[in-house]
Amino acid sequence: MPSNMRILLIHPPCEKEIYQRFLGLVAPPIGLAYVAAALENDGNEVKIIDMPAEGEDIGDVKKEIERFHPDVVGVYCVTYRVNHANVVINTAKEVDADIKTLMGGPHASLLAEDCMENKNLDAVVCGEGEITTPKLVRTWESGSDLANVKGIVFRENGQINRSAPRELADVDSLPYPARHLLPMDKYRLFGAFKLGTMVSSRGCTFGCQYCSVAAIYGKKWRPRSAKRIVDEMEYLQKNYDIDALMFMDDNFDLDKKRVMALCDEIMERDLDILWGYQSASVIRDEEMLKKLRDAGCRIITYSIETSSRRSIDVMKKKVDMQQVRDVFQMSKEMGMIRIANIILGLPGENEKDVEESIELTKALDPEYALFFLPAPYPGTKFYETAEKMGMIRELDWNKYDTTNPIIETEQLSLDVLRELNKRAYKEFYLRHAVLKNNLKIFHDFIKEGGIKPRHIPGLMSHVLSTLLYLARL
Length: 473
Ligand code: B12
Ligand code: SF4
Hints:
By secondary structure, the protein is of the alpha/beta class. The protein has 19 helices and 16 strands.
């Protein structure tokens, strides 16, 4: 018999973040859409509210819950949105004490018992939600024993209990995310391109000390097959008329063979789509880059994180700086839009190291650079170390969005970090080279037909708002 519950899934709002400011990126909460698809397949009526994309603030939650009148309210919870996630949970109970409340996502998965301190929260789904959530909902519906649902933390007779862990899903057999429940018209890249996102693999084998993914799923990487990925790309293009597609994988290019097979499949099907991804590895491989370029990949975010040898060692991040330089040069020659992700002020670094990172970023000369301040996410090795060494100065989790300084070391105070971060943005963006690189890229895109007249107002307003932001820094 199908399940028959009304379920409201909420992506809570947060501050305008750096990806939006500098890349004009508004991306869908694809994890919630995966959970929604699984719940719909089981017979439930599901609604997703993507509050950041809808421009809603937390005060709008009550009217949304009253309007849909759900049996279950579930919320996505990352560390920097935990306070808003709690407001959602509390509001649901305030509207109707019989509504079941539920959290999922990285922060809830790592700190489930902590989250359950909020007495209004009935359960947490730890890790992936596709298998667990429909089973939990069915168990609530039938009133059976929650202990039989693997992968949850739940409340029973005033006690907080944890069930057996859930095994990881077979990523190739999951249904597509329920994009029909998302406001697909609202997602953008560079403020102009209609954006679709996909996940072609889950997890990562690297185990960086500051990473929540490694802390939740361990060092496991689960790829989808090239055929299934390109099927979904075709589906997205056909049904949502997107201008660009970004892969939101943790580690997209871990396996060269898979990347090559994926590109071959895209080319064999003659799929004309502009796409991009985030490279965790920064691999020097001309053959792969060429193939990516030929298959329509034009945007690569390189997570260099840091150029300081000391912090590379401390954070167990695999970075070879000569390789990074070569990769940036090669991908420039191939006409890619390159985005560099840099973390400033990791433990062990002093002011000079941070300045070197800024100089290095300028020398790499990408079209865009994002500078993050280190945030020790609870549940990670980095958090353990930072806490043990008394480095954590900021306790408000709202601030853990990598734009605010959180840890202080003997070499770098919070104020110095804040200033260095501002300086990084100004020094990087207020240069002729950035303007020149961007003009060249956009000129090429216009020539190739990637930029159409309808994109111009969005692009202009994005550039203007970035410049205004820089001027106010
Ligand atoms: C794509 C992505 C982004 C995109 C955002 C896309 C979007 N709109 O959500 C961009 C590039 C904008 C981004 C930005 C940032 N991100 Co980010 N991002 C990711 C990434 C790589 C993938 C997320 C994803 O879509 N995964 C695929 C889906 C299928 O998995 P999922 O989201 O985890 O969902 C599953 C489960 O969690 C669960 N689930 C999720 N929600 C719910 C809700 C309910 C009710 C239930 C039952 C289950 C459930 O079921 C889902 C299906 O299995 C994650 C890493 C990760 N794996 O989580 C980091 C991650 C979420 N980001 C992180 C961070 C730190 C940031 C930034 C703050 C800084 C930065 N340096 O990147 C910024 C700021 C963002 C902001 N203010 O909103 C951290 C968060 C850590 C934490 N503890 O909170 C993560 C975990 C990365 C990490 N290495 O630790 N990010
Ligand atoms: S490379 Fe990225 S996803 Fe992989 S462990 Fe490091 S931070 Fe996490």
